[in-house]
Amino acid sequence: MTVPSGRRERKKAATRQKIADAALRLFLERGYDAVGIRDVAAEADVAVTTLFSHFASKEALVFEQDDNFEQRLTQVVTGRAPHEPLIPGLRREIQAQVRHCTADGAAPIWRMIDESPALREYEESMRLRHAESLAAAIAADPELSRTTTACRTIARFVIDAYAVAREAADPEAAVDEIFRMIEAAWEATCPSRP
After folding, report:
1. DSSP codes, 64-94
2. Disulfide check for 44: which of 12, 22, 35, 107 has CB 3.0–4.6 Å away?
3. Residues in Cβ contact with 187 at an 8 Å cutoff, skipping those fewer than 6 apart
4. How many of the other CB atoms lie within 10 Å of CB of 16?
5. Residue-by-residue pLDDT tens, the chain, 194 positions
């Protein structure tokens, strides 16, 4: 996560984290559906309006790193050095995210997500949004020179790699296997050179 530099930004980030931590604690203790927004605001000792200034919905409280993940993915594309290959950077980012999401203590959170239709739906829409942002970043880079279809397809593969690997018995090995296929697909879409 990016560390905010100014005092005001640090206070906002601390409030956001306090709200997210309170929400997750309540959701895991009582169950996602049994906890309301007012419960979370009270637990975090903030007004409901403050909660909504940091999170657009109850579901967003569970996926509090959503925007950060999306920014890091697009930064892999936009922050590359000239002629630096794209796919290894995306692989490193997905590997880091999978490690984070399979760390000790993450299983109850994923169980809660799997048991909630609202959270599963939110996660799917979030993944689609991440894929579109990543595809747009790839398509905007003239050095990468792929069709819109290729950019969108590779972006979906990358985003889905995270979900598939997270559920695998050996997540690290799954990322490696998936990214070998993504690399092959990426190379197959390379425009022919004269």
Report:
1. TTHHHHHHHHHHHHHTPPTT--HHHHHHHHH
2. 22
3. none
4. 19
5. 455 678 898 899 899 999 999 999 999 999 999 999 999 999 999 999 999 999 999 999 998 887 788 999 999 999 999 889 999 999 999 999 898 888 877 888 888 998 999 999 999 999 999 999 999 999 999 888 899 999 999 999 999 998 899 889 999 999 999 999 999 999 998 875 44
pTM over 0.70? The answer is: yes
Q: Which of 165, 134, 161, 128 lies closest to 72 in space, CA to CA?
A: 134
CA–CA dist 120, 90 (Å, integer): 24
Q: At CA 158, angle to CA 16 and CA 122, rounded to 5?
A: 45
Task: Count how many Cα atoms sit within 13 Å of the Cα of residue 94 in the half-sphere of its side chain.
Answer: 32
H helix intervals, the chain: 7-30, 37-44, 48-54, 58-62, 66-78, 86-101, 107-115, 117-140, 148-166, 171-188
SS3 for 20?
A: helix
Q: What is the identity of the amino acid at 101?
A: C
At residue 154, φ and ψ (nearest 5 deg) are -60, -40
Give residue 13's identity as a one-letter amino acid code: A
Tokens of 133: 């942002």
Residue 118 tokens read as 């609202």
